[in-house]
TrEMBL record:
SUPFAM superfamilies: Ankyrin repeat. This is Uncharacterized protein. It comes from the Eukaryota. ANK repeats lie at residues 276-301, 311-343. The keyword Lyase does not apply. PANTHER family: ANKYRIN REPEAT AND PROTEIN KINASE DOMAIN-CONTAINING PROTEIN (PTHR24198), ANKYRIN REPEAT-CONTAINING PROTEIN-RELATED (PTHR24198:SF165). InterPro entries: Ankyrin_rpt, Ankyrin_rpt-contain_sf. The keyword Repeat applies. Keywords: ANK repeat, Repeat.
Amino acid sequence: MSTEDHSDEPFLQAPADDAALEALNSIESWPSLRGHSYKQNEISVVSPGSEVNTFRKLLSSVQEELAQYPGMAQQAFRKYAESGDPRRTVKWFIYRIPEMLFRTDQSGYIPIEAAFASGNGPAARVMLDIAKHAGTLQRLLAYRNQLYGHSLIMLAVKLNSRECEDILRKLIEFDPAGLHRICDNEGRNVLHRCTEFDYCESFRMILTILKRFPSVHKDRIATEAKAALEVADNREKTPIHYISSSGNIAMLTDLDIFLTQMQIVLNFDACHQSSSAFTPLMLAVQKGQFEVCKWLLENGSVDVNYKQHSTCLTALHFAVRAGNPELISLLMEHNADPGFCDSECDLLCCYKTPLVMAETEDVPNKLACVKSLRTSDI
């Protein structure tokens, strides 16, 4: 009898018989190791038997986990043979491997992220239920992607369906402050994502969920929502910028109702840190979004003569450049200054007021633009 000490060896040795070894070698990749990035986890087939050597280097806990899968797979096949129902069989199987909820694939997504990204709400709901049964629901709700920086709700908005409101509610109620405190690698929060990609239904549901919080939390929720709507991403755009650019009136209507009921006043002009940033009004003017411009001028704290500090250009300048007399008239009705010039403008070479720009430059609809600008002299 051998007296060698095998305490440091893996508990599961490589299969001795040819059939078992062939089956093991046919596996093209092993499940990922806990706590490592997905790029390090993938183990490709290099040569016959390479997985055996790799397997023996894994932690004993991971080896034990892997060793359980053949037995579970065998039971799954038996259940399928008995029921003939592949959906129930798959569901039975995945409920028995909850640890896989946190394993990333080659794209860097865990399974529920993949479900959100593909718009599969029912699958995501099942995964939340699996986590609940396994006692890891809080961990899953708090999950943040290390590769891209986003939280789950930033992908969940892609579902964009009233049928998935319960999923959004669960994520928001878990961390309301995450609306503005958690951003992806591009500086976008969940409201940036909704407005940039026109997820109108998700945007509406989020605002509705926030309004339904108990009144005792109203002030805190209003503060979080205001911050989320006013913060700029890495491109110096707020959610209002994206709405202004797309001209999504439905989103503006939902937002208007929300702001009124929550008694929130937004500041659309004070969130820019660089001297070249556009306000939402400037962006809407450039895009020719008349209804959006009208809403912005009539709501919130829009300064119609707000300027780019690097150029001294105002929204009226951009309306002139676009040759849009209707927008020029709208801005003038809200006290836009056709002769705008301050001390900073005087220091700029070749600066022109909106009126001088219309009179001296080759702009579309030149005569109509000049006429609209000169109405202030009448």
